[in-house]
Amino acid sequence: MLNAEHITVRFGNYTAVEDVSFRLNAGDWLMLAGPNGAGKSTLVNALGQAQSVPYTGRFLLEGKDLCTLRPAALAREIGVLSQRNRVEYAYTVEEIVGLGRYAHEKGFLSHRDGEGKEAVEQALELTGLTHLRRASTLTLSGGELQRVFLAQVFAQNPRILVLDEPVNHLDLKYQQHIFDLISAWRHRESRAVLSVVHDLSLARRYGTAVLLMHRGKCVSQGEMDAVLTPERLKEVYEMDVYAWMRELTEMWRRKGRIL
Amino acid sequence: MKRERFSAGEYLLFSLALLAVMLLCVCVGSVSLPVGGTLTAIWNSLFGLPVPEGVPKAIILSVRLPRVLCVALVGAALSLCGAVMQGLLRNPLADGSTLGVSAGASLGAVIALAFGVAIPGLPYAGTMGMAMAFAFGSLMMILALAYALDRSFSTHSIILIGVIFSMFASALMSLVISFSGDKIKSITFWTMGSLSGSTYGYALILLCALLLCGGVMLSHSRELNAFAVGEDNARHVGVNVKRVKLTLLIAVSVLIGVCVSIGGAISFVGLVTPHMARMLVGPNHKRLLPASLFAGAVFLLLSDLAARTALRPIELSIGVVTSLVGAVAFVIIFRSTRKGGGNAC
User: Fold this and answer.
1) For B216, which residue in chain A has the nearest alpha carbon?
2) CATH for B91-268, among 3.40.109.10, 3.40.50.720, 3.20.20.70, 1.10.3470.10?
3) A102 touches chain B (CB under 8 A)
4) Mean pLDDT of chain A
């Protein structure tokens, strides 16, 4: 479905992403992993065609180059949920979610049609925000706000969902909830997800494939177990990731026995 | 439940309130006039009927009415510009005067007058064109400077640069005025504003500019909502960020340029009234922009009334009143943006 070919991003002399290629098929959930500063967010921003991220190479969506699409057409194909979202004015939850329908509404005085209303309703319900629909976004917690913007991107209904750390403000219950939601969403007809995740356990649990980055380059990509080997992780993260993960889970096991 | 747009009833309510205030402003002044006689005079001359004896027709029709019309139009236009800038830049302190756009426009107009820039055949076009061009130039320069200094476009750096730019433009303006002798109205006019010389011709120009630019702005309500939530978010939902931003900034510059070349730089109208409107109807621009139009017109009419009558027979500059009210409001708004939860920078 999506082919990224030789993507390179340079800011002056600094090369943030160097010659990364990957392929995303319908139903895939590709996880971008790697330490801080590996270029994951930059790659994601380039895919979202952010003007501040000049890239070379091509993103081909079923043969069409993404950089040739007009903004509204691009928004119907690719939905981006970014890391930081804050709201300055007292918009209601419903108004923010409704903005997701922008690319589907045409003309000057377009009223939201039945399909659009239903998409907003569904998005509110999926994210558990129906009871907060009239609440001002200024009164929400960080986690609730994150869900509002997730609902917005669901209402936008793109074919490819691009997520930069989607659950970094959320408590465990909503982490699981949101990941299950996205996982169900990608099984709909020709949908795919690409996300940046720091938590390798979450990446393993939900991803269908992983792309490991280090200093702007793709170290390895493919199936989880083939890519995330102890040696490779040690090299990339400069620590024994497997030992650390074991230590963490051991703690839970021991606690369980004592109690 | 709040509706997305205004209903006809709400428009009617706002229009009636505006007309009532306009009538008040025509009647009250150095000579107070009876409401009934004033209405008859306006009505009769509108339809070519003779005006009854004893009604001071000249005061009503050639002094008060054109002034009230101009004040209402300038107020509406400045307020609309403020609302648009506050949405576009996601900055509750944005306004022609805080961003230095009005000062830039004044400078343009003063230069045009001093050096006799004129377009043959069109009496005000040279001054207005220069005011518009300078308004747009200053806006672009301030935004570029703010972007160069700190890439986040933070609220306070934009305001800071706007204030510095205003001072710079005012200094240049004083310089030009002091070298040009008696050709130009006083510096007070260009820094404080006045609409005492209003004519129907000015009102017509203002109306055309407001219809044109206001139409552009109102038709971009959805995009403004997206910008007010965040520029990145606007891009993600599919707004053509560059094109919309440029269109709106040009519309704002043209409108401010016209207002400034007619009434001088009237401060704080565009800052204060959108906030009042937002309290009334919420932040959704589909409702906020029309509400700002009415609120701006009413606010400036009342300010002008105060300027004319407070220290009778001395007439104050209209900007004295708006700045007094506006400065207090500015502090209150500034304080609430610093305190308010996630929106402190």
Assistant:
1) A108
2) 1.10.3470.10
3) yes
4) 88
